[in-house]
From TrEMBL:
Identification of the protein by name: Orotidine 5'-phosphate decarboxylase
E.C. no: 4.1.1.23
Residue runs in coiled coils: none
Name of one Pfam family that matches: OMPdecase
Residues of the active site: 95 (proton donor)
Top EC class for this record: lyase
Catalytic reaction equation(s): orotidine 5'-phosphate + H(+) = UMP + CO2
Pathways involved: Pyrimidine metabolism; UMP biosynthesis via de novo pathway; UMP from orotate: step 2/2
PANTHER family assigned to the protein according to its UniProt record, in alphabetical order: OROTIDINE 5'-PHOSPHATE DECARBOXYLASE (PTHR43375:SF1)
Length: 271
């Protein structure tokens, strides 16, 4: 199914705008699981199985797996989500971006190898670097626009003919790159007013919003500036605050509780 349709269905079915980020940190896995040969897979699988009715998407972050030589665990994790929790879209957080001939391999990596429903990308190399992803019309193409980190402003806020670069990025993607209706943007909750400016130029395009929880972003302000008239349009992403809500053997139940609390906090601000 088309990523955008899966996302809309999951927003509605689970009454949730929460995306759980799957960022396994080897030093933070609970002792009850850390010794297992397949600890990274088991940890993420248990988090997924405890939260799948509460989320609109999962977002595994590829470096957290690759740095541990756990790409195989990532493949199996995504297959597990598709098998056991069909209809919950998986966003591969890879932030790729390269010339077209290489980008084709990155697109194949995300969609054919890992079987992700969407991927995060860096638009800095321009349209031809993103074209191999855009042409996969059923897949989501989620482009960095106003990132959550402190250095996000170094380039993204630079004046670009009377407007900041990140807004030029948003306008160009909405107007010129979204012919297949498969684009979304990353706008951090740490910059809620900028998020609102992006919303004003992209209509109802979905926004992936990291930065709440561990990065201290303002959830209430992000929702005020980012919700669409229909009360959705956002993927509010949280990783560490959910994954490590408890450092012990009850980690999956604690993750469920943290996910549900975030879901309810978000829903209090929806129409
Ligand atoms: O594309 C992303 O997901 C992303 C974009 C951004 O601007 N900021 C950001 O933190 N992220 C990712 O979102 C996750 C944030 O994790 P927590 O701060 O633990 O919720 C990490 O996996 C980051 O790589």
């Amino acid at each position: 199914m088309h990523f955008m349709q899966s996302l809309k269905d999951a927003w509605r079915r689970n009454d949730s705008l929460v995306c759980v980020g799957l960022d396994p940190e080897p030093g933070r896995l609970p002792a009850s699981i850390a010794g297992d040969a397949d600890a990274i897979f088991a940890f993420c699988r248990d988090i997924v199985d405890a939260t799948a009715d509460l989320v609109c998407a999962y977002k595994p972050q590829i470096a957290h797996f690759a740095a541990q030589r756990a790409e195989d665990a990532l493949e199996r994790l995504i297959a597990h989500i598709h098998d056991r929790h069909p209809g919950v879209p998986v966003i591969l957080d890879a932030k790729r971006g390269d010339i077209g001939s290489t980008a084709r391999h990155y697109a194949s990596e995300a969609f054919d190898r890992y079987k992700a429903d969407a991927v995060t990308l860096n638009p800095y190399l321009g349209h031809d670097s993103i074209a191999p992803f855009l042409e996969r019309a059923d897949k989501g193409v989620i482009l960095l626009c106003r990132t959550s980190n402190p250095g996000g402003k170094d380039f993204q806020a630079l004046d670009c003919g009377g407007e900041p670069l990140y807004l030029r990025v948003a306008e160009t993607i909405a107007r010129e790159w979204n012919g297949n209706g498969n684009c979304a943007l990353v706008t951090g909750a740490t910059w809620p007013e900028e998020l609102g400016k992006v919303r004003a130029v992209v209509g109802d395009m979905p926004l992936l919003v990291p930065g709440i929880g561990a990065q201290g972003g303002d959830l209430e302000a992000a929702l005020r500036h980012g919700l669409t008239a229909a009360g959705d349009g956002l993927m509010i992403s949280s990783s560490r605050a959910i994954l490590y809500a408890s450092g012990t053997s009850d980690f999956a139940q604690a993750a469920r509780k943290a996910t549900d609390e975030l879901r309810q906090a978000v829903n209090r601000h929806r129409g």
